[in-house]
Amino acid sequence: MGGGRQADHPEGGSGGGTAHSSDDPGPGRGPAVSGAADGAGPLLPAPPTAPVHAVADPPPAALWDLEGASGHLGGGPLHADDLPDGVLVADARGRVVLFNAVASHLTGVPAEAALGRDFRTALPLVGLDGHDWWEATDPYGGARDRVRQSERSLFLPDEREILVATRYVRARPGGELVRLVVTLRDAAARAERSRADLVSEVAHELRSPLTSVKGFTSTLLAKWERLTDKQKLFMLETVNADADRVTRLIHDLLDVSRIESGRLEVRRQVVDLAEAVRRVVAGRVAAGEPEERFRVETRGELPQLWLDADKIEQILLNLVENGVRHGAGTVSIVIEPCEGGAAVSVRDEGQGIAPETIPRVFRQFWRSKRRSGTGLGLFIVKGLVEAHGGTITVGRAPSGGAEFRFTMPAGTPEFV
């Protein structure tokens, strides 16, 4: 393949298009196949996995012959260096056989230095917890039903952030790993897109209330004497509501900024979680929701919880409002003890959330087709929960709707 860098193939290979021969003994067995890229240095030991039986190579076109797949389009063959993302491909032994130009640019590792080496040495990655990512995921020795790892933020040895996704190519479902395909993207590019999306969303959300405020205040100033008291009251109430809407949006933006920068402060005090739930429900009823729309249930004795009262109320308000606006039927809030603390489940009786969208629910700007707003609420909820040391999940409620369940740890904090 012309533009991408890949290891030279052994003589006698099928069409020069495969990375290893069909009698390849597999990871951890036999000597390394000769023909790695010159200058790549000595080959490292294969990943420490159980012996693997020989796997027949796929047809050459399935792996490297991109020219044959794209020649009919005109304009010359498709090269690995034409791809917009960085790509690393390791063979059945874990040796790097493809390392394109974008991967070299993102990692600072020349292709010649990566080809033929163990994938862990060519691309060392560290997770958010500071541990070796490859050791944690164990691509060659882990569960054989895995086919991919979704994109996530990882770190290079120099602490630069990078977005990594992996694909496990197997000879057959549940079989041995034939190839490990890793794609790399610059995390800075995603941050720029996120900021652009944030500006766009904020501009959109501010336009409506500010237009309303401007229109009604102009009318009041220009026609005050000709308006009835009822008309004045309506306009002033609308202006007040829109001002509250803008204030909430500004608070949300400040929360997003603090969550992303890790500057979110938690002021802990003893909080009665059940009482906090009842206050939130009472507020919704006072705002006009029918009391029978809500059901609060406390199960068992709760441990002492040191929490930020304002942030807990914000979490509950968001989740209850989410159930009211986007769910249906009764919104149930269940408070119960759990291992290490307490759990709160907010359930509705609506259509629920499609399983394929669950991984995206807590991302910024996520909204289903029937949702409105900025799409920041659940992202903020997750950030507030995790700032307390808790966790939050979403799934299907027993009644068929959505269930958001978050936990809060018990115990006295070291510093209050």
Topology:
Elements: E1 5-6, H1 60-63, H2 66-70, E2 86-90, E3 96-99, H3 101-107, H4 111-114, H5 119-122, H6 133-137, E4 148-155, E5 161-170, E6 177-186, H7 187-223, H8 229-261, E7 269-270, H9 273-286, E8 294-298, E9 306-307, H10 309-326, E10 331-338, E11 341-347, H11 377-387, E12 392-396, E13 402-409
Parallel strand pairs: 8-10
Antiparallel strand pairs: 1-3, 2-3, 2-6, 4-5, 5-6, 7-9, 10-11, 11-13, 12-13
Strand order in space, largest sheet: 1-3-2-6-5-4
What do the pLDDT scores average to? Answer: 78
In percent terms, what proportion of residues is strand?
15-25%
Number of helices: 11
Strand-pairing-aware structural class: alpha+beta
Q: Which radius of gyration do the C-alpha atoms yield? A: 28 Å
Q: Give start-end ranges of low-pLDDT stretches.
A: 8-71
Order of helices and strands: EHHEEHHHHEEEHHEHEEHEEHEE
Shape: globular
Helix proportion: 25-40%
Major sheet description: 6 strands, antiparallel
β-strand number: 13
Distance linking N and C termini = 62 Å
